[in-house]
Amino acid sequence: MSEQNHSEDLNSAVRYALDTTHAVAVCPFHLNVVVRVGDDAAETHAFLRAKNLRRSNGRPWSGQALRREFKRQLGEAADHHCPLCFGSKYP
Q1: CB-based contacts of 6, cutoff 8 Å, min separation 6
Q2: Which of 13, 14, 44, 83 has most Cβ atoms within 10 angstroms of its Cβ?
Q3: Which whole-number Å values give the CA distances from 35 to 27, 62, 75, 76, in the listed order?
Q4: Quick check: 70 pLDDT over 90?
Q5: Confidence check: pLDDT of 36 > 80
Q6: Residue 35's beta-bridge partner residues?
Q7: What is the distance between the alpha carbons of residues 66 and 70, in angstroms, rounded to a whole number?
Q8: pLDDT band for position 43 (50/70/90)?
Q9: 29-32 long-range contacts, Cβ below 8 Å, gap at least 24?
């Protein structure tokens, strides 16, 4: 999918940026579990990629909105491994 498909929705734009920079991964056994890889450079790259996305009206997302959505999505992601694969409960 192209960047344009993700640029209209903030949630989708941030997820696209995180996925394409490999800052997060989906567990291959539990498709509802997103895992934070823990690569600071990839997360920074994802933020910069999302910051450069333009909506159809040509305007970028505000930095504050992007930071809030990145914080939410990365906060919900499991750290380094899938908790369901390791026997713990996923929040």
Answers
A1: 12, 13, 15, 16, 53
A2: 14
A3: 7, 26, 10, 9
A4: yes
A5: yes
A6: 25, 78
A7: 6
A8: very high
A9: 29/82, 29/84, 29/85, 30/82, 30/84, 30/85, 30/90
Please give the sequence-ordered ranges of beta strands (E in DSSP) within 1-91, or none if there are none. 24-26, 34-36, 78-79
Helix 63-76 to helix 40-52 angle, to the nearest 10 degrees? 140
All structural domains of the chain with their residue ranges: 3-79
CATH architecture of 3-79: Orthogonal Bundle (1.10)
Give the burial class of 66: count Cβ atoms within 10 A of its Cβ; 0-12 exposed, 13-18 middle, 19 or more buried: buried
The token pair at 14 is: 């941030």
